Amino acid sequence: MPRLLPLCLLAIAIAGCKPNEPDWARKDRQGPLPAQVCNEIEKGVAQIRASKGIDLNDNGEATMPSALWNQMPPDQHDSLLRTLAFHAACKAGTQSDAQPVVIHGDDGGELASRAISTRVDTSEVLQN
Q: Rounded to two decimals, what is the model's pTM?
């Protein structure tokens, strides 16, 4: 196994740091997220952008100090990743079974990388 580790690391480096959306998820995209969902997500994004040290874009990527990431509990990690995924889905105008998100540290290293479902049951949203 130790011999395979350098090959795995090389494969990751060649593939790049950003997770790619699988073909099966790209084919099954649905229409845009409900405006109510995007409005709530954008409130969260505004709070993130107002905080010092976290930069995010509209494609599901963010950069932040590694020390800040390490101080966050796991539920905050999940919340940040989900917010990035839904923000990217709102900006793209489509829902996905596997919206890629990645968070980089201030040193350029990858802190987290996931593919998150941004599907929303519109019947539940419309009832609220």
A: 0.73
